[in-house]
Design a protein that fits this description.
The complex is a heterodimer of chains A (282) and B (324). With 282 residues, chain A is an all-alpha fold. Helix content of chain A is 75%, strand content 0%. In chain A, helix 7 runs antiparallel to helix 8 (178-206). Helices cover 75% and strands 1% of the residues of chain B. Chain B has helices at residues 2-10, 16-56, 58-64, 84-115, 118-131, 136-162, 177-201, 205-213, 218-247, 250-255, 273-280, 287-322; strands at residues 74-75, 80-81. Chain B has a two-stranded antiparallel ribbon with strand order 1-2. Chain B is mainly alpha-helical. Classes of the chains: A mainly alpha (282), B mainly alpha (324). At the A-B interface, helix 1, helix 3, helix 4, helix 5 and helix 6 of A face helix 2, helix 4, helix 5, helix 6 and helix 7 of B.
Chain lengths: 282, 324
């Protein structure tokens, strides 16, 4: 072997090691801190966390039952508004798209997806909080729904497109109209993918904090109905982590544990289901 | 809609089939109309978003004009507002994030797409996709309680090596632009990796095979053929991460220190656009203050739109050229 070849092989081995090291550092650091959260947060978790209200400032104990319910309500509202619009928009792009209008919609959807969540929060604030002059579950849910729409559109489109053309042609050859083919053949075929896409979407907005801090604000008590400020899990983590009390920090860890476990579980499940299907849009 | 269905029906012979056809057409038209309305609503929502930001920042825009962008004062009492300290903090923290994130992210992407055995690669890729899904408030929590203590331990070594530069002067309390930049880098690394990896995988295989057939080593084919081919897309993935870093709110707000002064030292606390909006918006006293904060939101919006737009074009140009 010539010297030159030895050098080239050495460079090859060196770069393999170097890029491997990059991967190791990147994943290792992230795994370390997440592992830290799971261990530390799990330790601080108790049954009270799920069943009790936050205690008055200064008292220890209590839980975040209202924040868990609050998050669930916000997500329900966000899904009720965001998913139908996103899904139907996705049907349009997949089944009737291909024109300039569809191109513009895709482009704008991507832009909207890139808008920082805090800006979406301002939008919901000017739209609902400002005219109503009070913070509310409604405003928070709307902010989250706007975050959900772009991803719902793109993932629905992606999964509908993955349905083979032959299925559509088969339905239409049997005399079905286009709408009948879409409703009874295409959408059922893409159903699993679309539902998983919605789950991933939910997992993403479940952790959103920025659009909530000045729309649904926060609440130390239960928040009946849709017109009052409500607590939400991510906002509680934010407030409690920055609070001055050790007990609050422990609650923040517990809340972080619950949120992260939820998000990761949904993601793992969804990706296992999808692992042999169309790729997941971001 | 009505006109087109009547003309279509007229062309056909009369009878039961006609009304059947008509109903089919009506169903198609309805489906089209409903889905079209949903697609249109995206454009409406986005337009409304821009309109609301623009209108509600009017007060501040008229008072300060373009000088808003280059003024250093942020004085709620005197109602004098300038965005410069926040733009500075946003840009500096994002720059730190990219400085750490690009080498690690692109290096790891190259490893996963080109160098690693497939078994290792697919497992790690799955892991990285999961890490990309971690909410930002979780990164903030870990930043406050894990990363800042680590950085404080690293303070002396950093000072002894880089202490002579203006970047590492002054006292270090933990919360700082440095901490914010490092947290941001952790958040964007999974994104750089997963998008760059996809772009690299989209490079046609004949490119690699040709290089290997000419006797190139794995690394030479990667570095001289695949990476140049995927260059635009990798740049795009970096732009996308930059847009995320600029708009990232919670993690930064929790560790940046919230100090609206421009300071050359990375050890000093700072403030970012997203962080001041998060901190002040709910309790902003007075319309002028709210208006100035909304104008900051408008600035952030414009910044991320421009960078995102450029990134999408770059990523699309590579994946469409190569992918099929």
């Amino acid at each position: 072997m010539s010297l030159r070849l030895i050098r080239r092989k050495a460079v090859n081995a060196l770069m393999l090691a170097l890029t491997g090291l990059c991967t190791f550092i990147a994943t290792g650091t992230l795994l370390y801190i997440l592992g830290y959260l799971l261990v530390h947060g799990g330790k601080n978790l108790s049954w009270d966390f799920f069943t009790k209200l936050p205690t008055p400032v200064g008292e220890t104990g209590g839980g975040m039952a209202n924040a868990i319910v609050g998050s669930a309500k916000l997500l329900l509202l966000a899904t009720a508004i965001g998913v139908p619009i996103g899904f139907l928009g996705g049907v349009y792009l997949a089944e009737f798209g291909g024109n300039t209008f569809a191109y513009i919609v895709r482009y704008v959807t991507d832009l909207l997806n890139g808008v920082p969540s805090i800006v979406i929060g301002i939008f919901a604030y000017t739209l609902i909080v400002l005219p109503q002059k009070h913070f509310s579950t409604l405003a928070g849910g709307l902010a989250l729904s706007i975050m959900m729409i772009p991803i719902a559109i793109r993932s629905s489109e992606e999964f509908l497109r993955a349905v083979p053309l032959a299925l559509r042609e088969g339905a239409m050859a049997l005399g079905a109209s286009k709408s009948k083919a879409i409703l009874t053949v295409v959408i059922p075929a893409a159903k699993n993918g679309i539902i998983t896409g919605i789950m991933l979407n939910l997992a993403r907005v479940a952790g959103e904090t920025a659009p909530l801090i000045f729309t649904s604000l926060g609440n130390r008590f239960w928040s009946p109905g849709w017109e009052q400020p409500t607590a939400a899990l991510p906002v509680m983590i934010y407030n409690y982590a920055l609070g001055a009390y050790e007990d609050w920090h422990q609650q923040a860890w517990a809340a972080g544990f619950v949120l992260l476990t939820l998000v990761l579980a949904v993601n793992i499940l969804a990706r296992l289901i999808l692992s042999r299907q169309a790729h997941v849009p971001r | 809609m009505a006109a087109s269905s009547t003309s279509a029906v007229k062309a056909r012979p009369p009878g039961r089939a006609q009304s059947f056809q008509q109903r089919l057409r009506a169903g198609d038209d309805l489906t089209y109309a409903v889905t079209f309305a949903a697609a249109l609503s995206i454009l409406v929502v986005t337009a409304l978003l821009v309109y609301e930001l623009y209108v509600h920042s009017a007060l501040s825009r008229h008072k300060f004009g373009w000088s808003f962008l280059v003024t250093r004062t942020w004085d709620p009492v005197a109602e004098q507002f300038g965005a410069l300290p926040f733009i500075y903090g946003t840009v500096v923290t994002s720059a730190i994030a990219l400085l750490i994130g690009i080498p690690l992210g692109v290096g790891a992407a190259i490893f996963l797409a080109e160098m690693a055995p497939p078994g290792i690669s697919s497992g790690l890729t799955f892991l990285i996709e999961l890490l990309a899904a971690v909410p930002s408030v979780i990164f903030g929590l870990l930043g406050v309680f894990v990363l800042i203590p680590i950085l404080r331990k690293l303070e002396d070594p950093i000072r002894s090596v880089l202490g002579w530069t203006p970047l590492f002067q002054g006292p270090f309390y933990g919360v700082s632009m440095l901490a914010a930049g490092v947290v941001l880098s952790l958040m964007i690394i999974p994104f750089i990796i997963s998008i760059s990896r996809e772009v690299i995988l989209a490079v046609p295989n004949d490119q690699r095979e040709a290089a290997l057939a000419l006797g190139a080593t794995r690394w030479e084919s990667t570095w001289r053929v695949v990476v140049p081919y995927a260059y635009k897309g990798i740049t795009g993935s970096i732009f996308l991460s930059l847009a995320r870093a600029l708009g990232e709110t919670m993690a930064v707000t929790m560790v940046i220190g919230n100090d609206p002064r421009i300071n050359a030292s990375l050890f000093a606390p700072g403030y970012s656009i997203a962080a001041i909006i998060a901190n002040e918006f709910a309790e902003a006293p007075g319309e002028m203050y709210t208006s100035a904060l909304i104008e900051l939101g408008l600035v952030l919006f414009a910044l991320t739109i421009v960078i995102n737009g450029a990134a999408r074009i770059l990523v699309a140009s590579t994946t469409e050229k190569g992918g099929s």
